[in-house]
Amino acid sequence: MAGDERLTLRLAPLGGALLGLLLAAPGAQAATPWGLVLSEEVTHDSNVFRASDANAAADTLSNTGLRLTLNQPLGRQQWNNYAAVNLERYLDHSAWNHVAYDVGSELDWSAPELWQGELGASASQQLYRADQDVAEPLRNLDRARRAWLRARKGVVTDWTFELAVNGFQRDLSLASSDSLDQRQGALEAGVGFQPNPDLRTRLLGRRTVGEYPHLADGTRDHYTRNDLELGLDWQPSGASTLAGRVAWGREDHSVSSQRSANVWAGSLAWRWQPTGKLNFETRLQRDNDTGSSRFQQAGSGSSGSGSSGGSASDTQQNTDAKLSTSAGLTAQWTLSALWRLNAAAALTHRALDRAASSGTDTQGTDDTRTLSLGFTYSPTRRIDLGCTVSRERRTVSADVGGLSFPYEANSAGCSARWWLGQH
């Protein structure tokens, strides 16, 4: 708690000083490279820890956010920076109060001979919610660091050569979760082909090397993975776009041998705008990447991480999942220049085991369904007000053991957001 409060006190004068600079800068409303977003959200959740009915606890959460961006041209280069901080407070469970953050910097660079790419790094901290069916589980924070370098070599044809290297490190604050700490590095190389502006394909190979350095028995689980990935981006019409990828690979573990297998993963996203006021997005995904999945807590703001930035308040959930398959649909209806309606539905099926945390071969499955409905009201160009209601329900297979458990949760929340400078 003391560390969170000290960080809050340090950030407050910084945010005030930057706000003053933005307000005083000539043309701050139009051409400034800076952006500032202030947000406040209050949500009531009927099952804040996603426990079974016997241990469900309701609470009201507040989320106060500050986001700063700087996108500055530097000659032929572009320097993009962001910093997002969220103060999350629980009315009845103050032990879970925490500061979430997401900061990053990326240089979009270009060089002679048609070379270009990105060099960047980011650091984040979010709440990590492991599946603990108790009345009040211990607070656990997920701290992640990423770095990446991507390079592309264009030629005087439709082809592009691509190369990338990236690193990832995660650490959890609770000692009991040390077995989920992770180190990972990857190298990618491939080619892209774009015969016209509406169609682009990509073929790349990826080599991943990593480890879980703190398994429960004190050993290290080293793993390697080799993937061959095919990607496609296609715009068949002005109202529709398709983006897909499929990857085939082999993953091997030194300790968790039950995770060693031939694997494949893929995703497909379809965006469709049948009219100027209706937007739909459909997503299908099969994911067996080493690690854990990410989801957005009901009622929270936009998600995102890495170079793209986003809310710092996303929640990490332990999957211990060797395979996750999901389908989702979102829709937005623009009623007028001031009003928008939003709806979303999603289904996620997980195949679970305890390989990542204990090395045992217990297995099972669960299914999680979510529904949400909300509206946004924009009285001015720089203010958004909105409310959302959502429902989440999970069912489990008969053989799931202690890997998962059923639960239900309902939430309702309202938010306000104001920004200055770049949007």
Report on this structure.
- It is a single chain.
- The chain is built from one helix and 20 strands.
- The protein has an 18-stranded antiparallel beta barrel.
- With 423 residues, the chain is mainly beta.
- The longest helix is centred in the N-terminal third of the chain and has 23 residues, at 2-24.
- The two termini are 33 Å apart.
Question: Key features?
Answer:
423 residues; mainly beta; 18-stranded antiparallel β-barrel; 20 strands; 5% helix
Distance between the termini: 33 Å
| Rg computed from alpha carbons, rounded to a whole number of angstroms | 22 Å
| Range of helix content | under 10%
Query: Can you count the beta strands?
Result: 20
Q: What structural category do the secondary elements indicate?
A: mainly beta
Overall outline: globular
Whole-number mean pLDDT: 84
Strand content: over 45%
Number of helices: 1
Q: Which residues sit in consecutive blocks of at least 5 with pLDDT less than 50?
A: 5-30, 291-310, 315-319
Helix and strand succession?
HEEEEEEEEEEEEEEEEEEEE
Biggest pleated-sheet summary: 18 strands, antiparallel, barrel
Summarize the structure.
With 423 residues, the protein is mostly beta strands.
List the helices and strands and how they pair.
Elements lengths: L1 H23 L9 E12 L13 E16 L2 E14 L7 E14 L3 E15 L11 E14 L4 E14 L9 E15 L2 E14 L8 E17 L2 E14 L7 E12 L5 E10 L6 E2 L19 E3 L3 E14 L4 E15 L9 E18 L2 E14 L10 E15 L2
